[in-house]
Write a structure and sequence with these properties.
It is a single chain. By secondary structure, this protein is mostly helical. It has 2 domains: about 130 residues, Voltage-gated potassium channels. Chain C (Four Helix Bundle (Hemerythrin (Met), subunit A), Up-down Bundle); about 90 residues, Helix Hairpins. It is built from 11 helices and no strands. Helix 1 packs across helix 4, helix 2 packs antiparallel against helix 4 and helix 9 packs antiparallel against helix 11. The radius of gyration is 25 Å and the shape is extended. About 5% of the residues have low confidence.
């Protein structure tokens, strides 16, 4: 990279410098405004009375995000890696609907356009990229993925067993017409949602339901504890340095080369 590209790269992809922090704060503000516009546009009274203003503001925001997207593609060494990355797809989805509205015309297509325009709400997913708290939470969830996966697998087995037992105990006369119906009840009860559309009628079924309700409180605490432990004792990742070659984020403070591909990173 030449000096200009290095400077732009540092501002856009990293948050450890004054320029990068200012860029992140500005984008945070624009993202929040853009999501607010999507929400306001769904209110008929506001949409009918301020349609022109909403359209102008949306185009201004779309142009800003388009420039950001083009800069990101142009500045990295491997554009395709960014384009097909999670955030690359989100960035593209956040600008496409407005441009699609120019191409897809006709009264019969208005419903389709309206649905596509709702994809702009994906901009809110960009928020985690620009906040340290969001990055910390995302890292905690990622490093907890194996434990959470095992937990979800265990809960899935549990609700299948509970649903089957309730089907055998209660039967169709109390609303448990099938095992999937019993599994649905088990999920609703175990998560303490309790819609009440199906409820046990026999003493044994009510006893089992009580046990499942108590288990629900304990089960809710498990994933919370897993993620909290990872937040308190995070896997060591010091800063927001992003490799210009492979786009791997978060290197040690004293890192000179990327730990994934070996490319020299910005000092």
């Amino acid at each position: 990279m030449d000096k200009t590209k290095e400077k732009i790269y540092e501002i856009i992809f990293e948050a450890d410098t004054p320029g990068g922090k200012l860029f992140d704060v500005a984008l945070l503000f624009i993202i929040i405004v853009s999501v607010a516009l999507v929400l306001l546009e769904s209110v008929p009274a506001i949409r009918n009375n301020h349609q022109q203003l909403l359209r102008i503001l949306e185009w201004c925001i779309t142009i800003i995000f388009s420039i950001e997207y083009i800069l990101r593609v142009a500045i990295v060494k491997k554009p395709l890696r960014y384009i097909f990355s999670f955030y690359g797809i989100i960035d593209l989805l956040s600008v496409l609907p407005t441009y699609i509205g120019l191409v897809v015309v006709g009264s019969h297509s208005l419903v389709v356009i309206r649905i596509l325009r709702l994809l702009r709400v994906f901009r809110i997913l960009k928020l985690t990229r620009y906040t340290e708290a969001g990055r910390s939470l995302a890292k905690a969830l990622w490093h907890s993925r194996e434990k959470i996966s095992v937990f979800i697998f265990f809960v899935s087995m549990l609700v299948i067993i509970i649903g089957t037992v309730m089907y055998l105990v209660e039967g169709p006369e109390h609303g448990f017409t099938s095992i999937p119906k019993g599994i649905y009840w088990a999920i609703v009860t175990l998560t303490t949602v309790g819609y009440g559309d199906i409820s046990p009628g026999t003493p044994l079924g009510q006893f089992l339901a009580s046990v499942v309700m108590i288990m629900g409180y304990a089960i809710i605490a498990v994933p919370t504890g897993i993620v909290t432990a990872e937040i308190i004792n995070p896997t060591t990742e010091k800063n927001t340095q992003v490799c210009p070659q492979c786009l791997h984020p978060s290197h040690d403070d004293d890192a000179v080369f990327c730990k994934k591909c070996g490319t020299r990173i910005n000092p």
